[in-house]
Amino acid sequence: MPAADISSSPAGGGHGQTVCVTGAGGFIASWIVKLLLARGYSVRGTVRNLEDPKNEHLRELEGAKERLTLWEADLLDYNSLGRAISGCHGVFHAACPITDDPDNLKEQMLRPAVDGTKNVITAASAAKVRRVVFTSSVGAVYMDANRSTDVVMDESYWSDLEYCKDTKVYMNWYCYGKTVAEQTAWKLAKELAVDLVAVNPVVVLGPLLQSSVNASSVHILKYLAGWVNTYANAVQGYVHVRDVARAHVLVFEAQSASGRYLCVDSVIHRGEVVDILAEMFPEYPLPTKCSDEKNPRAKPHKFNCQKLKELGLEFTPVKQCLYETVKSLQEKGHLVTLPNKQH
Fold first, then answer.
1. One of this protein's GO BP terms (predicted)?
2. Which of 54, 243, 251, 288 is buried most, with the most CB atoms less than 10 Å from its CB?
3. Active-site positions?
4. What is the per-residue pLDDT for 79?
5. How far is CA 94 from CA 20, 43, 100, 159, in A?
């Protein structure tokens, strides 16, 4: 029997269990913390700086006063991670180093991603946790110039590391880092006999819990705020942040869960994205032209997410995901609310 969707299950699945969430203040991690608290878990969230006000939203989550503690830790400091993980039943490794400095990719992004993952897996082994859930990315799955868009990819597919490096594009280097980090996690987990499960989401959208704007939200904000005049001839996969958090908890709680889990709702062209946004929010200066009108329209990649659906996850439709993203940007003050042209 497939596991029930935890979104409709009563709270209390984590009663008596303590888990650690790395990078707890991040977009995805914050939602994982929120859901874990709702499920009755005691949560230890690692953050870089306990005094940083950007983590205040975590303390305001329901159940946080009773069952959330924040621990100062650095991915490259094994001892700090070890202290946070010691005594835990499980670990959610969601911390993801991001940099916009192309000259320091190796030091600021690749090293923390790979060495940080090693530290987390090693600390989890020492603590004898039941399971580690690793937040990977579809970037570790689909990047391959020789793969046709007609191929329906599942969890057996991996990105081509040489292609990621040769293209010399920042986001491709991000995919390189996520691929190497995940491969490192699987290799070390096998050596140390750690029960590891990975979740591989596409671009994650939805309501912000933190006060700052994350990179994936900027992906939508730029169209609404008039920062760009055209949209790229490119496709993008999307998934709701709440669904990604649910996926993490599902694969932790399901005894039968193993391996990787693709987490994708829809893959659509950027032109479709702006069309959907224009339909719901016509008051904003959304672009109407593609930056590349000479070449054929890019075709969407295909993914098989049956493995995650069999655990009981139902994906939020992309239109609702985009709508909730925009409303959240407005409510958080990142996007000015304009009079709707239709009224």
1. lignin biosynthetic process
2. 251
3. 178
4. 97
5. 10, 14, 19, 20
